[in-house]
Amino acid sequence: MSAGPHASQRTPFQNPVIEWVDQRLPIFTMVNKEYGVFPTPKNFNYFWNFGAIAMFMLVTMIVTGITLAMHYAANTGIAFDSVERIMRDVNYGWLIRYIHMNGASFFFIAVYIHIFRGMYYGSYKAPRELLWIFGVVIFLLMMATAFMGYVLPWGQMSFWGATVITNLFSAIPVVGTSIVEWLWGGFSVDNPTLNRFFALHYLLPFVIVGVVFLHIWALHVTGSNNPSGIEPKTEKDTLPFHPYYTMKDSFGLVVFVAIYAAFVFFMPNALGHPDNYTPANPMVTPAHIVPEWYFLPFYAILRAINFDIGIPFTDIVFFEAKLGGVLAMFGSIAMVLIMPWLDKHPVRSARYRPKFRVALLVFVVSVLALGKIGGMPADAPLAHIGSFLLTTTHIAQILTLYYFAFFLVILPYLSKRERPLPMPESINDAVLQGQKSDQKSEKCCEA
Amino acid sequence: MKKNMEKNSMFKKLVLTSAALMALSVPSANASESKGVHEIVDVPFSFEGPLGTYDKASLQRGLMVYRQVCSACHSLKRVAYRNLEALGYTPDQIKTIAGDVTVMDGPNDEGEMFERPGRPSDRFKSPFANDKAAAAGNGGAVPPDLSLITKARHNGADYVYSILTGYAEAPHGVVIAEGKHYNKAMDGNVIAMAPPLSDGAVSYEDGTPQIVSQYAKDVATFLTWAAEPELEHRKQMGVKVILFLCVFAGIMYAVKRQIWKKVH
Ligand code: HEM
Q: Which H helix or E strand runs over A297?
């Protein structure tokens, strides 16, 4: 028994059953190594809770989703009715559906904060680039999953949202129309579309689980980043994951779940659109077609490009406005994907990069503002400046410009030019410094 | 330390600026888009707020208004007569209510369709066989099913109340087509539904004022129940869940503090 390749690294367990299993499959050794004694920087703030929270949300979505699927019928004639039956006649069906429906929103909230954390503390930089890429892939898969899930209840917004978004692919030159018809399985969003969206909506979350596994595997190779952005050097810099971070994560999770529960029980439809309680009707177009809130910044970028892109003062057009919008929308996520190669500054944490810090916070504000604009009608007048009529589209264009400039101009520029603040020697020193200057706002976030 | 304070105030400025930006960018879509008014009355309903419950007497009066007035044009097809138990009716009363309608059933063993009185397990009977018939009977406009109306419109119950009480003389210069009516709550201010309520149209037995605003409030309450029959249960459960989570979070925080005490 002791001759196996893992035998040398294994410490025997007291419990004979666990020991028996572990000799044959060292799963307990692995769990202990990765989640028990795993050395973790000791200076995490509460931003580091959101990975565990996102994980919890993924499991919640899968459990509630499978339960819904037991009662849901993916057929345009009865999909809406089947969801209403879940709400009215299935025991606690309303609870399961509201958990799933609001769960999508809270999953995105957790993941957006998680991404912001990575940006602010430079977690995307070497050696964590691949870890970052897996994260962006998860984000893309989540968007696809949520988009298709929103189609399932077959309300007005389901139908018209699906129509608008799938139609975007028709902007692709030459093959666009064929692609759209292939996606639809026909000549409009209809029963075949609903059926395949359900199949994919069931499948993709499990693909996400797979990529999450890779994400965490990569994390455990490089180890976690931390608010100082300095790699742990000695044992003084780290703590075992358990009980320190299992406890801290659990506390943060309970607080997050309490806010989530407040939505589920007291305002379950606050984040949704009333039009989705009217059954889909291809003959009646809603006044404003808006996607779910978590897509609004990207929707605003899409609509901001309302002009053809070509050589000014000539008739040469490279992209029609529609294609330009689609490219800008996908490009905005591609920017996040290649962020590790746009920002080559040697210092990770924004704590020691005052200029990057400002640029990033302005970036966050512009994404929030894009979200606001995305929920408003395009070209809606906002103000008169002299004879110039300022509209929502103008604001969206300015914000989109900043979005791309942040990645393509500011990050490369600061990589070369920004002089960082003096850095502490180690995580331990960073913690001690923080304690000495007992400073209010930081203290709230420090362990 | 000084540097940190600077950092702080900068952060604050950013937060404030962004808040201001958000506030400024709101001139609401409605106001800038549709001309005309969009008057939604904020009615105090008993079911609002985290502890809100339905006023049973109001629900029963609302059911009367629906059955005597609205049901001539609007279906309520997601609600079954048996669900009326939640309004405080006994099984016998429900049988009587259901028995008031005649429904088509079948085929029987001879293969014939037949008519029978409604049963508690039936859903509310719809006034029209299909949308085409409904449109034909209402000058081309389909009266929407009311089972989800409070969830399908912004401002829910307030909106229903405002539609029912929002009829008025069209302002000067506004021309209303034949068969249409001016309404202050409706998008675009034109509605195909003739004012359905008038004072005294439904007789209440409990001494409640028999006026349009009261009818509107009662039927809006009833329709909210029709759309969200789980509302009371949901809120009561929510209070317990949130209390539990808060206590649990408190305990977790204490344990976490205890464990982390020795670190630094
Ligand atoms: C990544 C995780 C998931 C996300 C982000 C997600 C998102 C969504 C969204 C946004 C809706 C529409 C909710 C509504 O407005 O009614 C939905 C519906 C639905 N989802 Fe998911 N979902 C996830 C996982 C799953 C899984 C694993 C299943 C299992 C089969 C599932 C089954 C369903 C069903 C049956 C519906 C239709 C019922 C309804 O509309 O409430 N979901 N999902």
A: helix A296-304
Nearest CA to ligand 1 atom 18: A149
- Read off the pTM: 0.91
**Residue found under tokens 């809770």:** A49
Complex ipTM: 0.90
DSSP assignment letter at B128: S
User: Is the peptide bond prior to A5 cis by the omega test (within 30 degrees of 0)?
Assistant: no
Q: Do B32 and A265 touch (CB under 8 A)?
A: no
Q: Where are the domains of chain B?
A: 1-35, 38-78+144-229, 237-264
Closest CA to A102 of A237, A251, A270: A270
CB contacts < 8 A, A to B, total 126
Task: Please give the full DSSP string across B183-197, using - where no structure is assigned.
Answer: BSSSGGGEESS----
Would you give the distance in Å from CA A45 to the centre of its chain? 20
CB A146 near ligand 1, within 6 Å: yes
Residue A75, amino acid: N
Which 126-155 residues of chain B touch chain A by CB within 8 A? 144, 147-148, 151-154
Answer for the pair A383, A390: CB distance below 8 angstroms, yes or no: yes
* The ligand 1 atom nearest the CA atom of A208: 1
φ/ψ of residue A53, rounded to 5: -65, -45
Handedness of CA B86, B89, B91, B93 (dihedral sign): negative
Mean pLDDT by 10 residues, chain A (447 residues): 56 95 94 91 96 98 98 98 98 98 98 98 97 98 98 98 95 93 96 98 98 96 96 94 95 98 98 97 94 97 92 85 94 98 97 98 98 95 92 97 98 97 93 70 44
Chain A residues within an 8 Å CB radius of B239: 265
Closest by CA to B228, choosing from A74, A161, A281, A97, is A97
CATH number of B38-78+144-229: 1.10.760.10
Whether A282 has its CB under 8 Å from any CB of chain B: the answer is no
What secondary structure does DSSP assign to A379-401, as a single string?
T-EEEEETTEEEEHHHHHHHHHH
Smallest CA-to-CA distance from A378 within A433, A301, A319 is with: A301
